[in-house]
């Protein structure tokens, strides 16, 4: 039986090796990295999945980010979900869904900001209701396919309206609980 644990159960080296295997070593140039630049992942919303034999097979990290409107001086806190990564040889085995199911359940219980991510709507929309419907006014510090810029509200923090606008970036005004560095 696979086991879902807090990501803090794994070493930094093991986490980096898994991310390299899932995304390739050039992953640091991705827009998602710029959005959360300098932030630490959120221990409460980050997970590891271990196979029955104890092998580290996948991880999910979440980050404190924000939608920032510099003209107005406003910052709306968001929780960025991802990377969601499963080792190539064990993809399509349900591990991604297990981690996302837990994240969404924990976020509905405990998160105080809506979730956002860059990901395939065919996956994250189909199973967990993420949508690009209200993110059309958002900008990112790098290239992003707008259909893949997704949001989902949580119980304590509904999804932002379609009129929401601004630049995605690391949180400045609303620091979150600390985790380990990127
Ligand atoms: C994307 C990823 C996390 C999915 O995890 P996984 O454990 O391989 O997938 P699951 O077993 O949970 O998927 C279950 C279902 O989702 C579907 N699915 C998986 N990835 C999908 C995608 N990108 N788009 C659409 N459907 C997808 C599967 O076909 C399967 O559908 P089915 O039950 O109808 O057959 C994993 O494949 C991965 O690490 N990929 C490389 C890294 C990546 O692209 N991460 C996402 C961006 S942060």
What does this structure look like?
34% of the residues are buried. This protein has 182 residues and is of the alpha+beta class. The protein contains 4 helices and 8 strands; from the N terminus they run βααβββαβαβββ. The mean pLDDT is 94. The chain has a single domain (3-170), classed as Aminopeptidase. Strands 1, 2, 3, 4, 5, 6, 7 and 8 form an 8-stranded mixed beta sheet that branches. A hairpin with a 5-residue loop joins β2 and β3 (56-69). It is globular, with a radius of gyration of 16 Å. The longest helix is centred in the middle third of the chain and has 16 residues, at 95-110. Bound molecules: coenzyme A (COA). Coenzyme A is lined by residues 22-23, 82-86, 91-97, 119-120, 122-123. Coenzyme A (COA) binds next to α1, β4, α3 and α4.
